[in-house]
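Risk register update: the risk of archive-format incompatibility is retired. Evidence:
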Amino acid sequence: MILLELFWTFFKIGLFTFGGGYAMLPMIQSEVLAKQWINHETLINFVAVSESTPGPFAINMATFIGTEMGGILGGMVATLGVVLPSFIVILIVARFFEKFRDSKFVRWAMSGLKPAVIGLIGAAIISIGKTVFFPNGFTANVFTSAPFYLSLALFIICTVLILRFKKIHPILLICISAAVGIAAGYALQLPV
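Archived output:
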């Protein structure tokens, strides 16, 4: 039963999300948390691992969540579910490409979808940011905790480096951030 539910859930996510993996994040978050497959903290960990492992973000997320819920077969079924809608749509679009290419309706639809995708990505950033910076909620003592300042410092440094030096490789930033997190956790015995 869980295999069918995994397939159907990720098929819907793949079918109704435009804009790539990050645009899928709010829908993934909504679906998996509502079904209580994983908790919010595990979702954040899966986001971090999905971002830092090879392959497309949405496929990695589906694979990790599917594996968590249904083992290796669950990971395969969830991955198939998230990929299949795109595959079908690409086949249809490829078949009728000439007809769609100059359609004013397609251009109008895309002009409406672009801002919505940015909004979905923004909502995911805010939701994940709340969990990263305020894991225990927004309280006055959050500003006295070492994890808050470590997270804030890494966020600011990575953002500045990416905006200032556009050619800095994201993998390098991920590796450095992981090393700093490990070192700080060891030195300060930060809570896990």
